[in-house]
Amino acid sequence: EPESLPPHKSLLSGGGNCLDIHAPDLRNNGAKVQGWECNSSVQQSWRLAENGAVVNQAGKCLDVHAPDFHGHINGGKVQAWDCHGGSNQRWRIENGSLVADNGMCLDVHAPDLYKNGAKVQIWECNRSVQQKWLFSP
């Protein structure tokens, strides 16, 4: 019988908020991914799949907008998208950061770190607090 999937967990930012998909767009490609006060909702439930995908409980993957991914753009767009296994949906945990397959880090826009609706983006890795992420125990 199939192995059970690992449980979905909250993904906590260095500011203490959770990685969140904008709820009204939860099932839409291109949905905004943001920092939000942790509330154990579906839009805040994630798991790291074996292929490196960060998968939301609603079935969407954490995705870097392809032109930003390939261009290594600081401030590049991160969104929720149907899972397709592409390199712009592959992540690894390194030094407490979530690092995309292009070597850039998942980053909360620093001025918004403690705010609901904070912009989440990719940025050159710099080990700052806005690039710290932790799957809740």
TrEMBL record:
SMART domains with a match to the protein in the record: RICIN
Molecular function as annotated in GO: carbohydrate binding
Domain Ricin B lectin: 7-136
Keywords: Lectin
InterPro entries the UniProt entry points to: Ricin_B-like_lectins, Ricin_B_lectin
One of the Pfam families matching this protein, by short name: Ricin_B_lectin
Protein name as annotated: Ricin-type beta-trefoil lectin domain-containing protein
Source organism of this protein record: Candidatus Kentrum sp. LPFa
Species lineage: Bacteria, Pseudomonadati, Pseudomonadota, Gammaproteobacteria, Candidatus Kentrum
